[in-house]
């Protein structure tokens, strides 16, 4: 939502002083500096809405998750859901923000079908947390201005003819956090990195799914440009960007638009703009003169939110592991590569958090840690990433529907390790489980599918069969061309349906066909 | 003639009647006789005639068999809740307000819903979609039939509840009070009205006018009934975020009881040692001169009972009315934004072929048609007070005045305000137990067209000048009848105002006035 907090002007001034010294241009717009700040609206992953007991189940049929309060019936009153506060405090602590002992709720007024009461309850005058920072990689950090709690709106959709507006109140009154950054970013890439870092942080603490496509994280971006030794330029706000790619594209488009205007000697007018995804450019929504007056006032139904140091400390003491700490720990503890760590952490938001910040231990990282426990972590990482996740992706299934339990995966890797299974038959077995979701014990399944690694006697007969099946190739090998051994090995593997150990088969074939080495 | 006689006799005898409380059927009969037709009070907007059939009579419950009228801004699932507004013309909430539930829990009977000013905005109960309420009172000197009596306002906004009580159409009535909406009609109608401390009675299910000021009020023809209903309703409610937690209630109850013990209250209602403050600022130029004599009579009664009278100053009172109208209007602007005709209530359909551009046009059409003039006036006032350019000068300034008004009261009361925090309690405290002042600046205003047009102007707001300070401070105020104005013979009320949470003391003092004024009347 468009908002110019009182405190922001001061913040911009102090950033301004600092940034005159650290002018950051970009080869794409030499001589210019782009200044970017982002307001992010995050849907809090709470079971119930911010001020009512209604479930936050947005996938339900329209207007089924609505209480009298959500629909703004007369005489109903708000009741603060403390779980939402807790998740916002977690987020604030994860960013090093200063959680306010006293914050207050205000009303922001406007008439629109998506706002049943005609006002949104937000925290304009005294937000929940102030300050803080987010690490975005390459040694860069983005400072946070403030974090505030507020209500989400309903969803309104217009019919194709444009004459009917349809309303779904399921989302009305759900909890949002607005996280306002300082204008600390200088390139679209930094802005993208900031949003990604924020997503990882929100998921780690369980505050939100942070999913831009599904709308649980929405961005408004402020962009201005200035020349060296000049103060920041006039900023424009681009609203409702729903992917990191569009965010970056919108910034790019704005920087180009601003520099073109200024190069032509025209001032940049302060505007609120939208983003056209197809044309990859922004368009005018309203000018500064058209900016609505939201008639903010304190909400007299909601007393100030008073948080004690004990409450804040208790939340700090039970904070889940943050992404940066997890990233470092996975590599040092298990010796897996940075690349594998990133993959594991990126699977389905990488979070072990359910509703209301409750730990669920369902993440790929947690799965990996359990499988790796007592086995070879590198093999575990390799199998989880390349075989399990690869197959799930191939089957278009998500990780949380994974039918292979930690115990099954551990057993599979143990059987692989002790030679009961060959790599090939282990893969066959994994695919079979994914396909059939069978509950049959692994050892029974191995016998039923005849996947046990071929014994040395059966291997010998398999090899002899291959030699007689491929006499010409066998002759070539006898003449000393060892490369052709692999062709016979292929025949053995095929005939054994993968149960043969390829290396053992090659050794056996050499033994049969070649004179013993002296 | 029957009605007039009944009303007069009742006025004389009601406080001391030992006869049984009328049954629901008798009240319904009374409503049939008095409420409609020429000169009828027009107090009720809906009656629940099915209630009597299932009326429980568990004698153990404190309100068993008692018929209570409910102001039509309080939600009831059995009867429509219109707020006297066209915009909620057919609105029947699927829920009961907490206060209604508490009454039902004590086996009270909700007899019907009462007329009021639209959403509680007004001082005369003339701004209503149900037609004005007519005060049932008739002077003893009047020679015309009751239905032809002088038509005066029953006061507002809870005029219907006041008239229902004054004409004996119910045992007691629930009202609301935002800036005087219980006390003014009670004073004009010659009955007792309590505006409790803010936050003691749940507002859940009470349609908001101004959240920070709204209180559920209680009206009855005698103080004892107010007490019995108040005791049922004053409960902590988790559904109301402004409901005061039990710990504060208990702390206040403890300090008020220990003060009453000091005063030697052992059921004798002695006022020995009670210090009654009379605020200088509560006798403005607009006040009728005929109020002084009955007010002085009350003071001598209190002195006879052992109380001492002490002049006090509440200097911020003069700014209270302006601050009240800014705050109340701003909150009304906000609270009434939900009435857009989309999810419930009336919706105005655009005429065939008229250009409807977007949802805002539909809202504007509905709100223009279905909200009354006074409501629209206050919405505009509140809307202005909240604009970015005016906010500091109006809304914030009004909040500062509100704090000063609160501080004024805290300074004069002996008992400290348990809600004010530790800083205030260390300040030197005043010496006053309660404050006493006339409830209104005049008797009930006329409903004749000439005066009604004058009531459209801003001067009508002056009626609230004595009642808004207690609303701004959130403290209890009880108005009890103090006699009749010498010039027109109409009733006058006197207000007993106490520190936050001191209802027990306030109600006792009110009862002492009620019981001893009679002795005084008879001896004088």
Describe the fold and architecture:
- The complex is a heterodimer of chains A (518) and B (524).
- Chain A is of the alpha+beta class and 518 residues long.
- In chain A, 39% of the residues lie in helices and 18% in strands.
- Chain A contains 16 helices and 17 strands.
- The longest helix of chain A has 20 residues.
- The radius of gyration of chain A is 30 Å and the shape is elongated.
- The termini of chain A are far apart.
- Chain B is of the alpha/beta class and 524 residues long.
- Chain B has a domain of 332 residues: Amidase signature (AS) domain (Amidase signature (AS) enzymes, Alpha-Beta Complex), CATH 3.90.1300.
- Helices cover 37% and strands 12% of the residues of chain B.
- An 11-stranded mixed β-sheet of chain B has the order 1-3-2-4-6-5-10-11-9-7-8, sandwiched between helices.
- Chain B: Its main location: mitochondrion.
Instruction: Report the total helices of chain B.
Output: 17
- The overall strand count of chain B is 11
Question: In total, how many domains does the architecture of chain A comprise?
Answer: 3
Count every helix of chain A, treating DSSP H or I runs of 4 or more residues as helices.
16
In short:
The complex is a heterodimer of chains A (518) and B (524). Chain A is α+β, with helices and mostly antiparallel strands and 518 residues long.
């Amino acid at each position: 939502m468009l908002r110019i907090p009182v405190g922001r002007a001061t913040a911009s001034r102090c950033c301004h002083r600092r940034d005159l010294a650290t002018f950051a241009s970009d080869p794409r717009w030499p001589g210019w500096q782009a200044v970017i700040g982002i307001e992010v609206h995050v849907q809090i992953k709470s079971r119930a809405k911010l001020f009512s007991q209604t479930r936050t189940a947005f996938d339900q049929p329209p207007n089924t998750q609505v209480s009298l309060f959500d629909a703004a019936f007369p005489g109903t009153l708000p009741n603060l859901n403390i779980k939402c506060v807790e998740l916002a405090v977690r987020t604030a602590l994860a960013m090093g923000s200063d959680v306010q002992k006293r914050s207050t709720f205000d009303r922001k007024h406007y008439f629109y079908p998506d706002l049943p009461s005609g006002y949104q309850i937000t925290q304009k005058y005294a937000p929940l947390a102030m300050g803080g920072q987010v690490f975005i990689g390459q040694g860069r950090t983005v400072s946070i201005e403030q974090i505030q709690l507020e209500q989400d709106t309903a969803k309104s959709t217009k019919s194709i003819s444009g004459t009917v507006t349809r309303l779904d109140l399921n989302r009305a009154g759900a909890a949002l956090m607005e996280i306002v950054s300082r204008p600390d970013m200088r390139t679209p890439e930094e802005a993208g990195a900031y949003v990604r870092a924020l997503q990882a942080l929100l998921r780690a603490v369980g505050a939100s799914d942070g999913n831009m496509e599904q709308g649980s994280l929405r961005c408004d971006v402020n962009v201005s440009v200035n020349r060296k030794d000049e103060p920041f330029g006039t900023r424009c706000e681009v609203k409702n960007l729903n992917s990191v790619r569009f965010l970056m594209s919108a910034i790019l488009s704005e920087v180009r638009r601003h520099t073109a205007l200024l190069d032509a000697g025209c001032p940049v007018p302060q505007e609120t703009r939208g983003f056209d995804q197809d044309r990859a450019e922004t368009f005018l929504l309203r000018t500064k003169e058209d900016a609505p007056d939201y008639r903010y006032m304190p909400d007299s139904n909601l007393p100030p939110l008073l948080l004690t140091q004990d409450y804040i400390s208790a939340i700090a003491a039970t904070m889940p592991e943050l992404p940066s700490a997890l990233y470092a720990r996975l590599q040092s503890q298990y010796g897996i590569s940075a690349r594998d760590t990133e993959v594991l952490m990126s699977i389905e938001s990488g979070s072990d958090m359910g509703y209301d910040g409750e730990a669920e231990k369902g993440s790929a990282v947690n799965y990996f840690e359990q499988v790796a426990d007592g086995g070879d972590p590198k093999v575990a990482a390799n199998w989880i990433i390349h075989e399990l996740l690869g197959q799930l992706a191939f089957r278009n299934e998500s990780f949380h529907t994974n039918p292979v339990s930690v115990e099954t995966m551990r057993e599979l890797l143990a059987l692989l390790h002790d030679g009961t299974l060959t790599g090939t038959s282990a893969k066959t077995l994994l695919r079979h489980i994914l396909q059939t979701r069978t509950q049959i014990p692994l050892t029974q399944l191995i016998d039923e599918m005849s996947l046990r690694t071929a014994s040395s006697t059966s291997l010998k007969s398999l090899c002899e069969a291959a030699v007689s099946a491929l006499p010409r190739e066998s002759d070539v090998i006898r003449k000393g061309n060892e490369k052709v051994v692999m062709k016979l090995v292929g025949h053995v593997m095929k005939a054994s349906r993968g149960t043969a150990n390829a290396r053992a088969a090659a050794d056996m074939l050499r033994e049969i066909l070649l004179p013993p080495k002296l | 003639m029957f009605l007039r006689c009944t009303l007069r006799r009742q006025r004389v005898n009601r406080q001391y009647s030992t006869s049984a409380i009328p049954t629901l059927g008798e009240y319904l009969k009374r409503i049939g006789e008095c409420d409609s037709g020429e000169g009828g009070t027009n107090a009720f907007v809906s009656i629940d005639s099915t209630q009597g059939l299932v009326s429980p009579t568990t004698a153990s419950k404190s309100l068993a068999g008692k018929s209570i009228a409910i102001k039509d801004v309080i939600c009831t699932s059995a009867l429509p809740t219109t707020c006297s507004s066209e915009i909620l013309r057919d609105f029947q909430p699927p829920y009961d307000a907490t206060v209604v539930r508490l009454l039902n829990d004590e086996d009270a009977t909700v007899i019907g819903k009462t007329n009021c000013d639209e959403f509680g905005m007004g001082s005369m109960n003339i701004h209503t979609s149900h037609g004005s309420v007519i005060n049932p009172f008739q002077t003893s000197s009047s020679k015309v039939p009751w239905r032809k009596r002088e038509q005066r306002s029953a006061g507002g906004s809870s005029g219907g509840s006041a008239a229902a009580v004054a004409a004996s159409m119910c045992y007691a009535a629930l009202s609301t009070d935002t800036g005087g909406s219980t006390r003014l009609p009670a004073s004009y109608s010659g009955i007792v009205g309590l505006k409790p401390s803010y936050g003691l009675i749940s507002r859940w299910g009470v349609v908001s006018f101004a959240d920070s000021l709204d209180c559920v009020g209680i009206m009855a023809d005698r103080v004892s009934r107010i007490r019995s209903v108040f005791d049922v309703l004053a409960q902590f409610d988790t559904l109301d975020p402004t409901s005061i937690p039990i710990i504060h209630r208990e702390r206040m109850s403890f300090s008020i009881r220990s003060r009453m013990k000091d005063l030697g209250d052992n059921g004798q209602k002695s006022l020995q040692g009670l210090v009654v403050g009379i605020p200088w600022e509560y006798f403005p130029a607009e006040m009728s001169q005929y109020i002084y004599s009955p007010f002085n009579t009350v003071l001598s009664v209190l002195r006879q009972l052992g109380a001492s009278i002490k002049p006090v100053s509440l200097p911020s009172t003069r700014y209270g009315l302006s601050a009240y109208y800014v705050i109340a209007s701003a909150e009304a602007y906000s609270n009434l934004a939900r009435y857009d005709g989309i999810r419930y209530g009336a919706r105005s359909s655009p005429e065939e072929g008229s250009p409807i551009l977007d949802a805002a046009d539909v809202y504007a059409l509905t709100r223009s048609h279905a909200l009354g003039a006074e409501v629209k006036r206050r919405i505009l006032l509140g809307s202005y007070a909240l604009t970015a350019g005016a906010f500091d000068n109006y809304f914030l300034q009004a909040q500062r005045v509100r704090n000063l008004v609160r501080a004024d009261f805290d300074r004069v009361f002996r008992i400290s305000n348990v809600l004010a925090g530790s800083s205030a309690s260390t300040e030197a405290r005043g010496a006053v137990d309660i404050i006493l002042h006339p409830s209104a600046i005049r008797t009930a205003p006329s409903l004749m067209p000439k005066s009604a047009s004058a009531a459209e102007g801003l001067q009508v707001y002056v009626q609230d000048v004595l009642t808004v300070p207690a609303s701004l401070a959130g403290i209890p105020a009880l108005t009890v009848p103090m006699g009749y104005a010498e010039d027109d013979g109409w009733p006058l009320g006197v207000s007993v105002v106490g520190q936050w949470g001191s209802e027990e003391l306030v109600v006792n003092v009110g009862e002492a006035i009620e019981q001893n004024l009679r002795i005084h009347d008879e001896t004088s």
